[in-house]
Amino acid sequence: MYGRTVDWSDRILVEALQRDATTSYADLGRLVGLSAGAAHERVRKLRERGVITRTTIEVDPAAVGRGVLAFVTIDATSWMGGADTAAAVAAITAVEEAHIVAGGASMLLKVRTATTAALQEVLRAVFDIPGVRGTNSIVVLQTLFERPVDPTEEPSDA
Question: Is residue 69 located within the same domain as residue 124?
Answer without folding.
Answer: yes
